[in-house]
Amino acid sequence: xxxxxxxxxxxxxxxxxxxxxxxxxxxxxxxxxxxxxxxxxxxxxxxxxxxxxxxxxxxxxxxxxxxxxxxxxxxxxxxxxxxxxxxxxxxxxxxxxxxxxxxxxxxxxxxxxxxxxxxxxxxxxxxxxxxxxxxxxxxxxxxxxxxxxxxxxxxxxxxxxxxxxxxxxxxxxxxxxxxxxxxxxxxxxxxxxxxxxxxxxxxxxxxxxxxxxxxxxxxxxxxxxxxxxxxxxxxxxxxxxxxxxxxxxxxxxxxxxxxxxxxxxxxxxxxxxxxxxxxxxxxxxxxxxxxxxxxxxxxxxxxxxxxxxxxxxxxxxxxx
Length: 320
Ligand SMILES: [Zn+2]
Hints:
This protein has helices at 2-19, 47-54, 102-111, 129-132, 135-142, 153-157, 244-257, 273-281, 293-319, and strands spanning 66-69, 72-74, 83-85, 91-94, 119-123, 145-149, 179-181, 186-189, 192-198, 207-215, 218-224, 262-264. With 320 residues, it is an alpha/beta fold. Strands 1-2-3-4-5-6-7 form a 7-stranded mixed β-sheet, covered by helices on one side. The protein has a 5-stranded mixed β-sheet with strand order 8-9-10-11-12. Helix 7 packs antiparallel against helix 9 (293-319). Mean pLDDT is 89; it is low at 1-37. Zinc ion binds next to loops.
């Protein structure tokens, strides 16, 4: 059965790569929807991105949606954190998964009994294809407006092209950003209040989102921690990102200092999310609460980063 589902999804991906992201005739007129601008041109998922997706099966593995806490819900595939925050006045979606798989996220949202058109805003953690790849499609299908960090907006609007680290390796349908925000900006979206913390490095506009979710009288600080990894990044003498090292240092300190009751992440394993979900299912009602989780992630990421930086500095010296 799993194989069949995987095959069906893969077929969907291939078909989509040929006709990708173009509305079928009879679909609603999108001319008035500014979010549609990114989907006007057919998008063909390139071989490099198809390989990237195939190499990470969890990014497209189905996951039943569920309540994380209060008005915060998990609606992503198993391996990519996509979060829905609900309110009377409209819902917020954070991230959109890989290109071609927005329908999986949409099905999860519908499974919760939520109408796609009640999503009013889509936020982004960072402008890489595994988190922004489905955003144009989701914006189109929901009618939501995209709000993103000003420093990642050009990359989103280029559809991932000319990434400082990946070049044109992992493009996705360009995302039209309706509103930009900067570090520390507080978004009041209907009844919801979310804060954007710039945590640059992984991308220039990498963002950690925080908000509060309540159950009865207990309100907890939710943190969707921005990625702090630097996978094979050029940290020294990077002409496209000269401030990369100081940006990472800033972000490690910021994440470590955040009030953090329930750590979430674009990649759930960053904060041992599934282990904590399993513990909760086994009866530990508060297993998702981990006030040290953000600090622990920042500490581990900083240690890896510093090892990588030391190695690259030694290589740079030996070349001279
Ligand atoms: Zn990334």
